[in-house]
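Submission checklist for the structure archive. All mandatory fields must be present; incomplete records are returned to the submitter.

[x] Identifier: Multicomponent monooxygenase system protein D
[x] Organism: Saccharolobus solfataricus
[x] Residue count: 115
[x] Sequence attached
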Amino acid sequence: MSLELTLETILDKYQIMDLSKLPQNMVGPVLMKDEFSYAVVEALARDNPNTFKGVLDRGSYIRVVGERELILNKTTLEEVIGMDVRFPGEVEVRMSAFAGKIIVRGDYIKWHLDL
């Protein structure tokens, strides 16, 4: 990994502490806790500066919170992780659920709501 990504660094940067601030139009993946998933969170934060709201620590997993739309680009994830990624497969095996609708392509994953 090109960055030091741990649960602690991700939570320090992105954890949502006030649940009353969760968006009504929430979208995003639920991910297992591992270094790759932390890279996914970092990539989502970079790619979505206006809609990425943070993460919720749920014990055995983390929920990524976005408002209306989140896009994970393969190129950004590879920049964060510092190597080629089998995409979208490496993301899908770590994603147990998601909020919103999902579009999966070879170069991006999009979670969104049609409003």
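[x] Structure attached
Curator remark: The first helix runs from residue 7 to 14. The domain at 7-112 is CATH 3.90.56.10 (Phenol Hydroxylase P2 Protein).
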